[in-house]
Amino acid sequence: MDLSIGEVAQRSGLSVHALRFYEREGLFANPVRRLSNGRRVYHEEDLEWLAVCTKLRSSGMPLAMIRQYVDLARQGPGNEHERLQLLRRHERHVETQIRELQDTLDVMRHKVRIYEDHVARGEADRLWNPSRPVAAQADTLQEGRPPGSA
C-alpha cells in the first residue's frame, strides 16, 4: 500500500520536515521512492523502520551511527557481526545513561523528602539558604545536619 508523506507523518508522529530531513541524511533503510510527478511514496516497511529509527534517536544514538547501521544493513548479508557490535556499543551507552539518570532521580527524591518534611513541620524557613548568614545556620548544625544538606 502506497503512503503519502502526510500519511507517514501522521502515522509515525514525525513532521513532514523531519521525514524530509531523515531522507536527506540517508537514514531510511530503503531509498524513498518517487512518482513521476516527484511526490514521495512510502510503504509499511518504511513505517516499521521509522519506528526503530526514532527509538535509536531518542536513545541518543548519533545520526552518524544510525547512518552507519543503515549502510551496513543495505549491504545485505555478511556484516551482521559489525551491526551487532554497533548495537551492543549503543546498548552499553544507554545502560550508562540509565544508571546516571537513576542516580540523579535518587538525589532528587532525597531532596524532595527533605523539603516535604520541613514544610510539613512548618520549618521550611530552616532549609539551607546560601544567602543567609552563617550564624543563622548554626541551628542546622546543632540538629546534626551539615550546612547545604537540606
Structure description:
By secondary structure, the chain is mainly α. The protein has helices at 5-12, 16-24, 44-58, 63-74, 80-120, 138-142; strands at residues 33-34, 40-41. The protein has a two-stranded antiparallel ribbon with strand order 1-2. Strand 1 and strand 2 form a beta hairpin. Helix 4 runs antiparallel to helix 5. The chain starts with a helix and ends in an 8-residue tail after the last helix.
Largest sheet: number of strands, sense, barrel closure: 2 strands, antiparallel
Query: How confident overall, as mean pLDDT?
Result: 88
Which value, in Å, is the CA radius of gyration?
26 Å
* SS class: mainly alpha
- Give helix % range: 55-70%
- Uncertain ranges: none
The end-to-end span amounts to 60 Å
Beta strands, count: 2
Order of helices and strands: HHEEHHHH
Q: What best-fitting shape do the alpha-carbon axes yield?
A: elongated
Strand percent estimate: under 5%
Tell me the number of helical segments per DSSP (H or I, 4 or more residues long). 6
Physical arrangement of strands within the biggest beta sheet? 1-2
Provide tags for this entry.
150 residues, mainly alpha, 60% helix
What is this entry, summarized?
The protein is mostly helical and 150 residues long. It is 60% helix and 3% strand. The longest helix has 41 residues, at 80-120.
Secondary-structure blueprint:
Layout: H1 5-12, H2 16-24, E1 33-34, E2 40-41, H3 44-58, H4 63-74, H5 80-120, H6 138-142
Antiparallel strand pairs: 1-2
